[in-house]
Write a structure and sequence with these properties.
heterodimer, A: 286 residues, alpha/beta, Rossmann fold, 6-stranded mixed sheet, 4-stranded antiparallel sheet, 23% strand, B: mainly alpha, two-stranded antiparallel sheet, flat
Chain lengths: 286, 288
């Protein structure tokens, strides 16, 4: 079932001023539940704008955002309820932390939802578990933590709302490889267990290829291409045509193929290429 | 969106006003402000209006933008105009008399001209300065105009640098505020409803991150400046030296002429300007 769908959406920044700029132009796309959908595109291709439309921070100038088939702007006064259902983690979310303790900060959204104290602490504990926040950290001030830890607290703050759809704008930007793996791994684990829809905006093709099921490619305020990871990354030339990179491992596989090695399979993750090479060599693996 | 605010924003362009030396524009602005407060007769207001119209046309800034700049003060204007209408006591019979409320002709005249004066003041100064002068050249101009004060030990350069930085970071702060507001709204924060106390409390999740990031940014900026060996104006040279061009003198001449005109209109015997005022008022409000 398609939980979140956008239909013919347009958005213009600074409408009616000399700085008018079209950020989205008649965009339609749907996001499957239980899957991780990656959103890639150049800086300024409209990714972040799209993300802000999904939970009603921006109102589209044309078209509709549909959650379970109902436009989220049907009842404008209840838009905050939509925001609990479509959790949005913005870029560099560590800048939004404010509470005295990590616990209080993660509990901010559930408290706004009007939950009871026992429910709040339950949700805080659960969100902390998925993001790898220890009990000891929960009672610290968020300003004492390291950058990567702050990022996790911010993500936990959204997870604590138990959203049906989770949207993350560059959740791993500026983190070291280990931090990336921990955060993205934790999130994909969460999707598997809860069956929610996850939308992941990223510049890292490696992360996309590794974690996502589907990929939406944006270019020049429009959807350039949408499909499964297989479909998108098997046409590397097309991605390169709009100035996007492909995973390094895909480039290696392409060179091998050009040199006459007839590889076949998922040539965009390290594992996939490894399997393909083993298959080509006719070996059993060891 | 908050970023829609245009008051005090620079619109890059290539108009005659954009090309003027910032010092010329600063001095003309001072002259203009004096002129606005000198004006007390319809004739003077009419000349002011013409002057502002000329400036707007010369600056090639669209009327839409200018109207938008006035929007934020519209309520202040209405409020002061109403006070003027109700509180002014004139000679002769009041136009409307209702219990203690008495509205005199003089009150309406005064309210009208007061509002007109404020609107002209805002349009004139923003067209002359903020819309057409980049913050950097503006502070360059201020620094250059105030440089005689250096001799008596006033740290003019430091003030100018502080102003440049402050102006430079206004858009950044607005952007940052919007970003944090959106982040907290995504967590169900509500900034626009509830009682006054509730709203004030709702600002905490906005203000704390804003302060934290501002201090951090200031610290980073200071370090970056020190890395580039910034040490105030000791032996500092300028990339672009300000110099007056013939067109600057032309505008100065206009400015002096205009100020003289305004002074002349001011000292013209009151009964003459008064009767013109009366006629114009009658024409404006009762003939139409």
């Amino acid at each position: 079932m398609n939980k979140l769908e956008i239909r013919n959406v347009s958005f213009i920044y600074g409408k009616g001023t000399p700085f008018e700029r079209r950020a989205l132009d008649d965009v339609s796309v749907s996001f499957e539940s239980g899957k991780i959908t990656g959103l890639i595109g150049h800086t300024g291709s409209g990714k972040s704008t799209l993300v802000n439309l999904l939970n009603g921070l921006y109102k589209p100038h044309g078209g509709e955002v549909l959650l379970d088939g109902v436009s989220i702007w049907d009842k404008p006064s209840e838009i905050s309820k939509i925001r609990y259902r479509v959790g949005l983690v913005m870029q560099y979310p560590e800048y939004q932390l404010f509470d005295e303790t990590v616990r209080g900060d993660i509990g901010f959204a559930p408290r706004n939802q009007g939950l009871s104290e026992s429910e709040i602490s339950e949700r805080v504990a659960e969100a902390a578990k998925f993001t790898g926040i220890t009990d000891e950290m929960l009672d610290k001030s968020p300003f004492e933590l390291s950058g990567g830890q702050k990022r996790r607290v911010a993500i936990a703050g959204i997870l604590a709302m138990k959203p049906d759809v989770l949207v993350l704008d560059e959740p791993a930007a500026g983190l070291d490889p280990r931090g990336r793996r921990e955060i993205l791994g934790g999130l994909s684990e969460y999707v598997k267990q809860s069956g929610i829809t996850l939308i992941l905006v990223s510049h890292s093709m490696e992360d996309m290829a590794y974690y996502c099921d589907n990929v939406v490619v944006m270019s020049d305020s429009k959807i350039y291409k949408a499909g499964t990871v297989d479909e998108i990354f098997s046409s590397a030339e097309e991605l390169e045509k709009i100035g996007l990179d492909v995973p390094v491992i895909s480039k290696i596989a392409a060179r091998l193929k050009a040199d006459g090695f007839n590889l076949d399979g998922k040539l965009y993750t390290v594992e996939g290429v490894k399997d393909a090479i083993i298959k080509y060599l006719g070996g059993s693996g060891r | 969106m908050i970023s829609d605010i245009t008051l005090g924003q620079f619109f890059p362009g290539n108009s005659p006003i954009h090309k003027l030396d910032p010092r010329t524009k600063l001095l003309l602005t001072v002259a203009f402000i004096v002129a606005v407060f000198l004006a007390n007769s319809p004739l003077a207001f009419f000349s002011l209006f013409l002057a502002v119209l000329t400036l707007v046309l010369a600056s090639q800034i669209s009327f839409k933008v200018i109207l938008k700049g006035i929007k934020p003060i519209i309520y202040v204007l209405i409020f002061t105009a109403l006070i003027n209408i109700f509180m002014t006591r004139g000679e002769g019979e009041p136009l409307i008399s209702f219990y203690i409320i008495k509205i005199y002709k003089e009150g309406i005249i005064r309210a009208f001209f007061m509002a007109f004066r404020v609107i002209l003041l805002i349009i004139g100064t923003s067209v002359l300065l903020t819309y057409t002068t980049s913050p950097i050249s503006l502070t360059d101009g201020i620094e250059s105009l105030l440089s005689p004060l250096k001799k008596i030990g006033v740290p003019v350069h430091v003030f100018a640098m502080m102003m440049t930085i402050a102006l430079r970071f206004i858009p950044t702060l607005i952007e940052e505020t919007e970003k944090i507001m959106n982040a907290q709204k995504s967590r169900g924060a509500d900034f626009s409803s509830g009682s006054l106390i509730k709203r004030a409390k709702a600002l905490i999740p906005l203000l704390i991150p804003l302060f934290v990031s501002s201090f951090k940014r200031a610290d980073e900026l200071a370090i970056a400046m020190e890395c580039r060996c910034y040490r105030g104006d000791k032996n500092r040279t300028k990339l672009v030296k300000l110099s007056y061009k013939p067109k600057d003198f032309l505008w100065f001449a206009f400015g002096i002429l205009f100020i003289s005109l305004m002074i002349a209109l001011r000292i013209i015997p009151q009964h003459i300007s008064g009767s013109i005022s009366e006629e114009l008022f009658n024409f404006l409000f009762f003939k139409i």
